[in-house]
Amino acid sequence: MLFVGDDWAEDHHDVELMDDTGRRLAKARLPEGVGGMARLHAMIGEQLGEDAEDAADQVVIGIETDRGPWVQALIAAGYRVFAINPLQASRYRERHGVSGAKSDAGDAHVLADMVRTDSHQLRPVAGDSAQAAAIKVVARAHKTLIWERTRHTQRLRHTLRDYFPAALEAFEDLTAADALELLTKAPDPASAAKLTVGQITAALKRARRRNVAGKAVTIQAALRSEHLGQPEIVAAAYAVTVRSAAAVLAVLNEQIKVLEGQVEAHFGRHPDAEIILSQPGLGPILGARVLAEFGDDRTRYASAKARKNYAGTSPITRASGKKKVVLARHVHNDRLVDALGTQAFAALQASPGARAYYDELRAREVSHHAALRQLANRLVGILHGCIKTGTCYDEAAAWSHRVEKLVA
Fold first, then answer.
1. Largest pairwise CA distance in the chain
2. Which residues contact 287 (CB under 8 A, 6 or more apart)?
3. Which of the residues 207, 270, 291, 321 has an alpha carbon 20 to 30 A from that of 164?
4. What global pTM score does this model have?
């Protein structure tokens, strides 16, 4: 066996090769890219000898990431690659020294030693399909743009509150096409007060709004209402920033729509799409996010409990002596937790079993968020069973144990 620690940076990798006794065999700083990968293969080949190609599975590599061309090249070469959480590596380093010393070469040594002694406790990089990897790329990009839109919307809201509060009363949704169009046309109180009902109506029609006549009158009245304001020159400066923010939001809206189509297209071609879409609360976009974050490697999760642990929905227990505390997990995949929480909330309407389980928790004075988290945990277990057996969701089968418990 040959153990390799790879401390990566943007343009280079510090690597160390170690044998099964912990003895350092070689170390080097390799450049990122094809040249660096070729040198790493050569270093490994020197240690394995003539049987290097046949013994690739005897090479175990520890690295603090699970994505990127470098990691994919390691997997393609047949090496066993373990993605190590930086927090785990930090704690492991403290086991062998308390001085606080740290270096890239030292980190490579720590990673090599970790996979030598603790590989049975670590999770190998998942062997997800190219289809799942593509879904992950577009689903994450789509969600990132949504988060960016929320940030820009909050900035716009704060700006309007500082000099043009009437706009906040006039426009309920600052990301809507009609609101952005009118704010671009009239970004300050003086120009907004001059907008006619006809101009507002035209913007509402282009945005395909309903009840256009009534909304146009309401918006005009709000824009012409009296509010505290800023000096004219200050309001003009604010107006420039609002036009810029509105332009950014318009582009974000457009690109979110484009990526939404890409997410649906990639997800629809995946063989697990039918099973995932059958789950309560999951549509094409949310289902794509769940698939992207869980991956589609059938060997990655040994049990439903393992999938729940990765999801971050299962609780953790801290017990010492007579003290025992059950807590929610704070270290988790934020994107997956967000998707599963949204699914749990939507499932309250889509699944009678999910609703009954949630109501039971609330009756026991469990808080709303804690009840949703427990429901999400249960739904992850149901999803695991469906994927494992290759069957779609069945309401009666999924919640039969709850019914039997209530009857008993």
1. 85
2. 267, 273, 276, 277, 279
3. 207
4. 0.84
